[in-house]
Amino acid sequence: MAELPVSEMPRDPALCSGRFTISTLLGGDEPPPPAAYDSSHPSHLTHGSTFYMRTFGYNTIDVVPAYEHYANSTLPGEPRKVRPTLADLHSFLKQEGSHLHALAFDSRPSHEMTDGLVEDEAGTNSENPEEPVRFGWVKGVMIRCMLNIWGVILYLRLPWITAQAGIVLTWIIILLSVMVTSITGLSISAISTNGKVKSGGTYFLISRSLGPELGGSIGLIFAFANAVGVAMHTVGFAETVQDLLQEYGSPIVDPTNDIRIIGVVTVTVLLAISLAGMEWESKAQVLFFLVIMVSFANYLVGTLIPPSEDKASKGFFSYRADIFAQNLVPDWRGVDGSFFGMFSIFFPSATGILAGANISGDLKDPAVAIPKGTLMAIFWTTISYLAISATIGSCVVRDASGILNDTVTPGSGACEGLACGYGWNFTECSQQHSCRYGLINHYQTMSMVSGFAPLITAGIFGATLSSALACLVSAAKVFQCLCIDQLYPLIGFFGKGYGKNNEPVRGYLLAYAIAVAFIIIAGTSLPRSELAPRSTLGAQDKLTDSSSGAGTNSWITISVAELNTIAPIISNFFLCSYALINFSCFHASITNSPGWRPSFRYYSKWAALFGAIISVVIMFLLTWWAALIAIGVVLFLLLYVIYKKPEVNWGSSVQAGSYNLALSYSVGLNEVEDHIKNYRPQCLVLTGPPNFRPALVDFVGTFTRNLSLMVCGHVLIGPRKQRMPELRLIANGHTKWLNKRKIKAFYSDVIAEDLRSGVQILMQAAGLGRMKPNILVVGFKKNWQSAHPATVEDYIGILHDAFDFNYSVCVMRMREGLNVSKVMQAHMEPEGLVQEEQASTIFQSEQGKKTIDIYWLFDDGGLTLLIPYLLGRKKRWNKCRTRVFVGGQINRLDQERKAIISLLSKFRLGFHEVHILPDINQKPQAEHTKRFEDMIAPFRLNDGFKDEATVTEMRRDCPWKISDEEINKNRVKSLRQVRLNEILLDYSQDAALVIMEFIQLEKGHGGHHCHFPELIPQGRKGNQQKHQEEGYGRPLLREPERLAELLKDGEGAASEPFSGPGPTLTPDKAKAPSGNACLSRAAWKTISWQTGAPSSDLRESLIQEQRMLCLWELKNKKFTVLETKF
Fold first, then answer.
1. Which residues, 6+ apart, have CB-to-CB distance to 283 below 8 Å?
2. Rounded Cα distance, 151 and 344, in Å
3. How far is the C-alpha of 167 from the C-alpha of 324, rounded, in Å?
4. What membrane topology does the UniProt entry give (predicted)?
5. Share of the chain above pLDDT 90, in %
6. Which residues pair with 1043 in a beta bridge?
7. Strands 808-813 and 1086-1090: what pairing?
8. Are 702 and 1087 in contact (CB under 8 A)?
9. What is the rounded distance in angstroms from the CA atom of residue 351 to the CA atom of residue 555?
10. What's the average model confidence in pLDDT over 981-1010?
11. What confidence tens digit (pLDDT) does each residue in 535-581 have?
């Protein structure tokens, strides 16, 4: 705890707030009455000294534990309470109470904090908003789930399945189906107890567990499936009513339009109930539940009543042991007569377990209500299914004629079957397969057995209408949450909520419109002659049960091709959600994330995995083609969200899994030794703020993309305490900029007293294990002539440090400069701004059919060749032709060319165009030599004309000055670079890039190393460039011994220092074809690379050398020295 000085404590004891005090709980004086909340003070400043003195014995700005400090949302209009941050506690002892200002915060809840809460209506100033309706686990979850699990299959298909499969196999089918739904229920319970569950139901559970990609796709199809489910259930109800009207001879218009009229009226009534609010919708569900319970009681009472003659003719004889024994075993009939056929018909009736979860936003305590209500609903519905199967299998025979005259004297030899013992002869219809009644022939057996048949019809009405109402509510609720998250375009309009329960009125209307559309489609049914009465439906008639997570139950589809086709697809949509819920639970468990702490412990990750797999298997068992369509739709929506990359962060298990994989592979790399075949150019790029040097970021990102590591380093110079707040703010912004620019890189920043020490920290700390940068990429210090010499000295020192840390080095320069921050801040004139924008995006466009020229004058181990090869693999550079230039002797041109071509072929780089430079040792022109002298004149010490004391003082004050001895020592290298510039103008004037090794850096020499790029004024025709290199390197392309052998004869002429007039051969311009004018922007690019590790495999003449690789660009016959390094 941080102790607050008495002089800085709030003086007003009324500032104390909080629901209780620890001193009160421990006993003691009565606490002071709470004062009105003051929004100007955060919660940790609203505790008076009396409270803290009693509680802790001293005053403090710390706060006691409270739920409000951990909640990620607040009620509308309520300010968010926060505890002091570590920075507050660490720095609150400032003078003059300055910490009080540092602790101020914005108490207004953000959009993310208020996600799922009721929106404040415009102009509403009510201090006491009306409390929304909330439901408990019985009314909110259990009853809803039971209503949606019970369906018309219970009434119309369970007796038939019992006749086909027998009681034993029917129980197995029921238990297998319940096993899948129970596993899913356990997974739902685990997920719903791992944190706060808001509105959105199934979509919320999956999206917050597996992320927006899978959550968004499931949410959209789940909402659509529920909307179509409204039509399916309503059509089932409308058909039953229409059959009753037809039976009593009272049709409205005709069979086709009767279904349309009844369906539209019914769904309109359901819409009105939904618009009235969740309270009325819940009352309607309770009414339907009571109707179904009465119908169950009616059925059970009917099984106990002795059979009448009419019922006996239809196969009902009350409870008989021999009937039970006969119906224990299966009697498969028809095309669906198989175990899996019966399982595929029954399984949808066991679903509907997501009915309660889909109104999660309307539950009092979802973490308690969802597990308890869902599992209790599964238990009681399973008991009801098993009981009905056993009771009806004990009372009714499989075949009966329904003819009252089919009586027989018991014991007659001409009669076969159990009915003979009860005085009925069904032998003839059984043998001729013409029986219309009995368990296996009559779907309305439960109605026939019941004490009062209309109550069974009422139960069917209750099952269909309750399911339709639940689908309507679920579709709107789920879709509203999806719209609020804005994962898909053009749907945000439907996210607005109304009233105290944030009702999705617009979502209700959309679901209503979809339902009406499908009801009208149902009206285009077959002619009436093809619609059999409900009481006489045969086994071949199709009954499709679809389960919605919101509660879908079962429905009877009409004999309509359109609905019969779409119903299996809708059923598979729901099964997709079950599979993903189970997979969510499994995935969250195996990631071992500390955030996965469900309070519901009765689940197993392996059972969840089994539930996910079996759900997919069942999809194909039901209808394989519908399963493929459902999976295809999910994948399409999934890929869309992946492509759009919505800016949401829900802490999904996918993120945790990605971390685990990255950690595992990173640790695993430590066990792998380095091998030359696995070398990758991993770059630490000194970008500063990456958006200030976009060209530098783009170029390096081009060849590291999907290949190797790229780290953008940023050194913030200044005192740590002053820069820390800035460090926190800018890191996320720079990372987002890299992602928006589609650069696959990391951003790393440090605070240091100066640039050089900060870069040293970056070079030592950047990376992780084997994924550590091995190349330092920097921009050229363009203002080296006008900058303070100390900064130039630091710049050169950074390069020396890179070599000491075993880094290769790359220096990049553009004509306009790399840093565009001044343009961004100063708002240049439009013309200049356009030019800078072109320069900053030059590497984002294709480079055209130009050339990449490689001046491979010394063996650096292959990095000079590797970088252009990696560039050539990228789309923006793959049209460029690569040319390799090497030094040689005039009398050995053909031999040396063949040797280099042979060597390149072994490297498998695809470089076949080789040019030999016989004139590299010529003396440079006098005017270019004079320019060199003029350029370095301000940096010369001129110690030959001064006394020793003056020279010593100048060396102390200006250590960057160049002595005459150093000038003479490096004159040969300097003249060699001037000559090399002339050669570049002759051969590579129109090249897109020129890549070269660079000369050695000597420690102890500072600013004069920067003068070589300035030897030739930019944009002047005919100017030359000076460039010299010495180098060594690790053999990145292997076979270094062979390389030294092939270069043995010609290397002396190419690498010997210039000592006099050289060959005067005029270069063959025809061998250096000019590039086209594809690059239309005024940008000049160069990069210098230097390998960092010595190679023991090269010849002795190469061992002591260091090399740097340089990229140049030329355009319109204007050559610019873009970078040099010594």
1. none
2. 15
3. 8
4. Multi-pass membrane protein
5. 20
6. none
7. antiparallel
8. no
9. 12
10. 71
11. 333 333 333 343 333 333 333 333 344 555 667 777 888 888 899 89
Say which CATH superfamily domain 678-820 falls into. Answer: HUPs (3.40.50.620)
Angle of CA points 210, 215, 219, to nearest 5°:
160
Pairing of β 1109-1112 and β 1086-1090: antiparallel
Q: Which helix (H) or strand (E) holds 875?
A: none
* CA 554 vs CA 367, 786, 1013: distances in Å: 28, 82, 80
Report in angstroms the alpha-carbon separations of 1096 from 226, 670, 994: 72, 25, 28
Q: In angstroms, rounded to a whole number, what is the distance separating the alpha carbons of residues 810 and 828?
A: 30
CA distances from 338 to 5, 170, 173, 331 (A): 83, 11, 11, 9
| Mean pLDDT for the chain overall | 74
The secondary structure of 950-1007 as a DSSP string is HHHHHHHH-TTPBPHHHHHHTHHHHHHHHHHHHHHHHH-TT-SEEEE--PPPPTT--G
Residue 1098, amino acid: L
CA-CA distance, 77 to 201, in Å (whole number)? 25
Average pLDDT of 444-469? 91
SS3 sequence, 799-829? Answer: HHHHHHCCCEEEEEECCCCCCCHHHHHHCCC
Domains 139-400+437-524+560-629 and 678-820 share a fold: no
- Residue 746 is classified by DSSP as E
Is the pLDDT at 19 greater than 50, yes or no? no
Span 889-915, mean pLDDT?
A: 86
Q: In which residue are the tokens 């997974």 written?
A: 187
* pLDDT one-digit tens code per residue, 658-700: 888 888 888 888 888 888 888 889 999 999 889 888 888 988 9
Which of 409-413, 471-475, 638-642, 907-911 comes out lowest in average pLDDT? 409-413
More reliable by pLDDT, 389 or 832: 389
List beta partners, residue 748: 713
pTM (two decimals) = 0.70
User: Measured at the alpha carbon of residue 981, what is the angle toward residues 980 and 985, in degrees to the nearest 5?
Assistant: 115
Report the alpha-carbon distance of residue 99 to residue 38 in Å, rounded: 18
The answer for residues whose C-beta is within 8 angstroms of residue 727's C-beta and 6 or more apart is 716, 749, 751
95 pLDDT above the threshold of 80: no
CA distance 393 to 320: 9
- Return the DSSP state at 46: -
Cβ neighbours for 525, distance < 8 A, ≥ 6 positions apart: 255, 256, 259, 531, 558, 559, 560
Tell the residue number behind the tokens 């100017």, with chain if given.
Answer: 1023
Higher pLDDT, 371 or 425: 371
Tell me how far apart the alpha carbons of residues 1050 and 399 are, in angstroms, rounded to a whole number: 103
Q: When comparing pLDDT for 373 and 1087, which is higher?
A: 373
Topology (CATH) of 139-400+437-524+560-629:
Amino acid/polyamine transporter I (1.20.1740)
Question: 873 is written with which tokens?
Answer: 């693999």
CA distance 395 to 406: 19
**Cβ(471)–Cβ(478) under 8 Å?**
no
Mean pLDDT of 884-911: 86
Domain boundaries, the chain: 139-400+437-524+560-629, 678-820, 850-932+967-1003+1117-1125
Whole-angstrom Cα distance, residue 1050 to residue 1099? 14
Q: What angle do CA 1058, 1059, 1065 make, to 5 degrees?
A: 65
What's the Cα-to-Cα distance from 1011 to each of 210, 252, 929, rounded to whole Å? 57, 98, 13
| Distance between CA atoms of residues 951 and 943, nearest Å | 6
Taking only the tens place, the pLDDT of each residue in 780-831 is 887 877 778 888 888 888 988 998 999 988 887 776 677 766 544 444 344 4
What share of the chain has pLDDT > 70, as a percent? 71
* Beta bridge pairs of residue 994: 853, 1112
| Contact between residue 851 and residue 1074 where contact means Cβ atoms under 8 Å apart | no
